[in-house]
Amino acid sequence: MTVATIPPRPYSIAHRGASAYAPANTLAAFRKAAALGADMWEVDIRASADGVCIVHHDATLVSGEALNAMSREALRGVMPDVPDLSEVVALAAELGAG
Known about the structure:
The protein is of the alpha+beta class. It has one domain: Phosphatidylinositol (PI) phosphodiesterase (TIM Barrel). Helices cover 28% and strands 12% of the residues. β1, α1 and β2 form a beta-alpha-beta unit. The longest helix is centred in the last third of the chain and has 11 residues, at 85-95. The model has no long low-confidence stretch (mean pLDDT 93).
């Protein structure tokens, strides 16, 4: 027989971080979500042309260029605040969030 463990309260999951307080899917949004007590963060992931996992919702830039057609370095040049997944994972580990 399997017994499920019910958490003492519902989990608080921050959609793209605290996107009401900072740009969505940025380290600032995830830091704010942790400060507000979020247990977990929901992130959107896209792959760059060189295979780096980028934390960004849309498949294209405002200019219409596809994210997966650009290298991580090129993306950082046009979207400096958009982290890659390894940066978000490191921040989650640092802050004890998920």
